[in-house]
Amino acid sequence: MNKFDRAGFTLKELSKKYGKYPRTGLKNWKNDWQLLFAVILSARSNDDQINKITLRLFKKYPSIKALADADFESLALDIKSSGFYNAKAKHLQEAARSIIANHSSKVPSKLDQLIKLPGVGRKTANVFQGVIYGRSEGIAVDTHVARMSRRLKLTSKKTAEKIETAIMKLYPKSKYHLINPILFWHGRTICVARKPKCEVCQLNYFCPSSLI
User: Fold this and answer.
1) How far is CA 141 from CA 58, 169, 183, 189, 200, in A?
2) Catalytic residue among 116, 142, 153, 157
3) Tens-place pLDDT, residues 57-92
């Protein structure tokens, strides 16, 4: 079985289980800017921790302007448990001000505009597009996507950008937004970093790295 076939079977099999799962593990957001800022906060952290932060954060700052105008030190303390909190607080405020000034307080929809916002890279932009619009211009590569892509031998690349470029060639653009969620949930629950649960994995009959 070649990598194109493995990519296709991966999407088919995992969609059966995770197709109705949320496209992100992030909660508490109710609009576009809240989702974007939750994704920015999730860098080098985990969704469970960010959900605890945003539960309080979005109540304290109910509008994008409120966050843009917030006292910096207070905002940094509010998100301290996310890690790298000073840098993230700076990104949040600068992104908020840019969205207000340049996009009439609405988060832009296109990738090239999103990645111009402070704190927003391709991964963040693709996650945002996939969740909000049900489409994306690329594939968000997190640790789970990277690990599974290599275990399935869809690519041997190591960096997120190179992995994204490689696996984008294996799927039609209309499916890009589906790849991150299904690999995220499977990587988080079954194809874990240590001691993957190959015995209960739907992909074990064709996965080159299967331990059974």
Assistant:
1) 26, 14, 10, 17, 24
2) 142
3) 999 999 999 999 999 999 999 999 999 999 999 999
